[in-house]
Amino acid sequence: MNIATIGTGFIVERFLKAAALTDNVTITAMYSRKHENARPLAETFNIPSIFTSLEEMLTDPSIDAVYIASPNSMHFLHTEKALLAGKHVLCEKPFASNQSEAEKMIRLAEENELILMEAITTIHLPNFLELSPLLKEVGPIRLVKCSYSQYSSRYDKLLNGETTNVFNTEFSGGALMDINVYNLHFVIRLFGAPESVTYHANKHENGIDTSGIALLSYPSFQAECTGSKDTAGFNAAFIQGEKGWIHVIDGVNGCRRIELHAKDTNKTVEVNREENLMYEELLVFKKLVTDHNLSAAMELLSHSRKVMKVLDQARKSADIRFPADKLNGSL
After folding, report:
1. DSSP alpha helix (H) spans, 68-212
2. Cα–Cα nearest to 34, from 45, 50, 23
3. In angstroms, rounded to a whole number, what is the distance separating the alpha carbons of residues 124 and 130?
4. Spatial CA neighbour of 91 closest among 100, 80, 99, 107
5. Are 195 and 217 in contact (CB under 8 A)?
6. Topology agreement, domain 2-121+279-293 and domain 123-269
7. 94, 180 contact by CB (below 8 A)
8. Span 319-331, mean pLDDT?
9. pLDDT at position 330
10. How far is CA 239 from the centre of its chain?
11. For the whole prediction, is pTM greater than 0.90?
12. DSSP symbol at 33
């Protein structure tokens, strides 16, 4: 499978390293508005082609799929163009700026019988896949607590008056979309969509959230998702039930180890995995494309749709609006 990439940030380098570990995956092209931005990565990973015209790259018949890691606000446009050009798409999280954009992307993939998948590491990690069978050993579930905090150097820039993409509403940024989204994927993949959502955010004067707590209410339990880019903290997830509790070591982003503490048993789950967290999601995407498994792709898209709906509800409750919302009447 030949893949072209859009974007030149650190996440693209991580993806290129994951691709190098994956059999029958070749990165054949990169798109960047400026040739010099892509050159270092292209030289390091022996990528033969750099395009400064997205339209030109998408007409290349040798490209099977496109990995999209542009700013959040561009995910919809770049996915739309790639799908219309007949390319399968692996689009970085958050899937889109809002649910309205996500629905259009999903509809377009379905109409053109193409594989579209959100690039979210958490739900494809081996240890995460071992979690569901453990839930009955601690249930009924009463509380879920997820915390992912990572102090951002770009927050220093924000405090000094420089607004980078991740702290800019113009680019659909913020802590909820960038970092707390991992927690939401974790909870929603395990338990489905909540009945209600509220988001209590710390906001910069420009209106963007730099940290916050999302509260998800389910019929028989409550889930608290904390995400921060303006502080560091203890990263972990806890699933607490009447019979015991589960501890996800180091948080949902890596799911490095899972410890089960129940009344009659203690258990540790630590499945071997690649150090590169993107490897597993790329394997899933490759298999979907190779098998042309549209039904499995739609199941994953149904999950992404639920997450996008919760993101919309959370932003609405915290009065966080993006320009993209005005364009399609969202929120």
Report:
1. 75-84, 99-111, 126-129, 132-138, 153-159, 175, 181-191
2. 50
3. 10
4. 80
5. yes
6. no
7. no
8. 88
9. 76
10. 21
11. yes
12. S
% of the chain at pLDDT higher than 70: 100
Q: 172 — alpha (psi -120 to 50), left (phi > 0) or beta?
A: left
128 by DSSP, 3-state: which?
helix
What does the block give as tokens for 38?
């892509």
Q: Where are the alpha helices (DSSP H) in the chain?
A: 10-21, 35-44, 54-58, 75-84, 99-111, 126-129, 132-138, 153-159, 175, 181-191, 279-291, 294-317, 323-328
Domain boundaries in the chain?
2-121+279-293, 123-269
The residues, ordered by sequence, that sit 6+ positions from 157 with a Cβ below 8 Å of its Cβ are: 163, 164
Query: 3-class DSSP state for residue 227?
Result: strand
The whole-number pLDDT of residue 264 equals 81
pLDDT value, residue 178: 97
274-312 pLDDT, tens digit per residue, is 899 999 999 999 999 999 999 999 999 999 999 999 999
The confidence score (pLDDT) of residue 77 equals 98
Residue 64 has pLDDT above 90, yes or no: yes
Instruction: Give the torsion sign (CA, 111, 15, 166, 307).
Output: positive
Q: How far is it, in rounded angstroms, from Cα 271 to Cα 259?
A: 12
Q: Report the CATH fold assignment for 123-269.
A: Dihydrodipicolinate Reductase; domain 2 (3.30.360)
Of 3.40.50.2300, 3.20.20.60, 3.40.50.720, 3.30.1780.10, the CATH number of 2-121+279-293 is 3.40.50.720
DSSP reduced 3-state for 322 = coil
Is residue 4 classed as helix, strand or coil in its secondary structure? strand
Query: What are 154's two structure tokens?
Result: 């770009």
d(CA 266, CA 27): 44
C-beta separation of 183 from 238 below 8 A = no
